Amino acid sequence: MADGDGLPPSTGRVIRGGSAGEAELPSVGGLAWPAARDRSQSPFAQGLRRLRKNKIALVGAGIVALLLVVAAFADVLAPRSPITADQTRTFQRPSWEYPLGTDQLGRDMLSRIIHGTRVSLVVGVSSVLLALFLGVPIGLIAGYHGGRTDTVLMRAMDLILAFPIYLLAILLMVIFTPTAGLIGAVKVTGAIAIVRIPIYARLVRGSVLSIKEKEYIEACRALGTGSSSTLIRHILPNCMAPIIVTTTLGIATSIIVEATLSFLGLGTQPPTPSWGWDLKANISFIQANAWLSLFPGLAIFVTVLGFNLFGDGLRDALDPRLK
Amino acid sequence: MSIYILRRLLGIVPTVLMITLVVFVMMRSVPGDPVVALLGDAYTEEDAIKARVAYGLDKPILVQYVIWLGRLVQGDWGTSVLSGRPVLKDVLVRLPVTLELIVLSMAVALAIAIPAAIIGAVKQNTWPDYTATTVAMIGVSIPEFFVGVLLLLAFSFGLGGLLPSSGWVYLPGTCPSMVCGVSLWGNMQHVLMPAIALGIGRAAILTRLLRTSMLEVIRTEYVTTARAKGVSERRIVLKHALKNALIPTVTVMGLQVGFLIGGAIVVETLFAMPGLGTFGIDAIFARDYQQVQGFALVTALAFVVINLLVDLTYTFLDPRIRYA
Fold it and tell me: What is the ipTM of this complex?
């Protein structure tokens, strides 16, 4: 990263990229879990207890749960096919028959929005998980082994971070060539995941650097525990709190990036329903038919809001020092 | 300090080289060929070979990159295969539009974020604070293009077409040709909605961050000391709390540049503005290698230079920070 070397210590809390919530996370987590107040409960159980008391986070969790149900049962919930055009019923205003109206091809907007949930959630969640599964091991290995391994791995991460994220995501999508359907979603997932890998690698490396100096890790070494076992059983669990929070808030960011790529025509291609694409495709008609762009936009907004509220609540619950 | 700046300036070179090299290789791995688009219906294999030789596209990629770099250091950014225009000229014409958009959007962001964060922090856990944090949460969850659409619906298509929905009027003195509209008032009308669309998200992020930092600073001992000395609350907030709370905020503003560049592409596309964002995205879609290279170069330069400026701002905000 071009700006990393000169940062003063007082700004070490800031991580590059992502949503506001991510920006407020610590990049170097000493003690990843908050100090236990109640020794009879595990830190995770304490976190869950705090989360349950946070009403706003529960609203976020409710939105996320609802969206998951909509995505899973889209075929049952959608009143019509999202891709079947009906030229006799174009630009229908919202009514009982078409609660969210129809678009310029006479397709039911409600059904398109319900099916669009799938693309948004699948890409948002899987791109973050893919980045997590690739970025966390890189951070663990770089932080634990140090030396040349660390230099090589982190320079590779810096190369990705040196790019403005949208420029890289757009270029990757142009190379992958956007297509429709599942393959199209996989391509967008890959592009967003590549951009997000360094966020995890840096976060985990920072945590590992401080954790590996702790006495219990020294004890592991003294007992002759192998390095992979030490990493997975003793170091990784102590990095989990920031990883979980970054993941939840990262999904919100990924959903916005996916919608933006779709808006630019680089996401999943038609006929697969996608909120960003629908919003863009209908812009020429919004003067007379405002709902055409309003509903896909609202869908993106509510989804991102749900993940942000839940992510904020998780951060407060798992790491109260950051509240 | 000057040694530090010199070292950082030298550090820009490898970063920019790396970005431009990666973009160069990536663009040439993209399916599609600008020569096919250039020749259009008149395409013959023979003409295509001639055109590739003429534009140096027949050489190995790394050789092409070195040639591009060699010309670049002489001030030649290359010529677009498709339009035949020099890339530097196009970049210089479009740069002021995007710069104006980004600067104004940051101004919008700061104009909203600083008062909102101060109110939120000073009146913590009261309804003004809840309002500020709720609005900020909405702001971080709403994509720029949707804000843009809402603004279009409100001010261009509603309210009797108060603001223009697309196009551009240049600031006096920046018109690139004889035929463009030039007027300060017209320019303001055209840039207002895009700047708000791009600025709202940043405002929300900065409000959240600045409020949290302010809350931390307000609880420090030196603020208590200042209060004990009888310093006015206004002076404590503006001089002691805000200035110290701005340090992490400035960092995030620098880090937001990557998002601002992406946001500029989207907002310029939505409002049909003749800026660098639309230039870049059009070039990428058209596989216009030289234009994409120019776009990547200017983006990379902006990115690293702004990050350097951010680091230098720390010394102003916190004199304890010294770069050796």
Answer: 0.86
